[in-house]
From TrEMBL:
Native source organism of the sequence: Knufia peltigerae
Superkingdom assignment: Eukaryota
Biased composition (Low complexity): 86-108
UniProt keyword list: Ubl conjugation pathway
Signal peptide: none
Domain UBC core: start-end pairs: 2-189
Location of the region described as Disordered in the Swiss-Prot/TrEMBL record: 73-113
Protein name listed in UniProt: UBC core domain-containing protein
Keyword RNA-binding carried by entry: no
Amino acid sequence: MFAAKRLGKELQKAKYLPPGIDLVKADDFKEWQVDIRVLDSNPLYLNQIYRLSFIFTNNYPIEPPEVTFIYVPPSSSSSTEPISNTQTHAQSQPQSQPQSQTTTTPNTGRPIPIHPHIYSNGIICLDLLGSAGWSPVQSVESVCMSIQSMLTGNTKNERPQGDEAFCQSMGVRGPNGWTRSERGRGLRGVRFAYDDDTV
């Protein structure tokens, strides 16, 4: 109930998201999807759009959401239109269910960005997303801005050490969920060592 109230308020503000951040799916208060772009001329991410998945528990924002990049293959089928700048029923009634808008437009796909703190399966090693680094004052918008900033400042075209083994053990997240049933336990069981703040 508390999560729904908070997310209802965040949804109302979604039409004012900063440049390069677009809410593309908010069908309920369990999962939202957001597209982000790096706005500067960083050649690693030039002209790329990436998709983030936010999975919320009933204890949000006391508990952090589970945030991962998801791979969306290119297609010309129906795609979800950004709703950041559209009116939704939930904006007038914060506790009601949010609505997405779907249109048929070319979809160039959403890859997983290459970064020393982002695994090939979309899992992000960022202290802000862990229980120790999380604060209830954070929001979907602030998390997106932090990840956007993390990408902007990166100069290394590489994956984290041990990427292949980690991804084999965790599975891969796509637009329809994880490829392995054991991923149902969530990311909260993963413990990262945050020892490199240079990227």
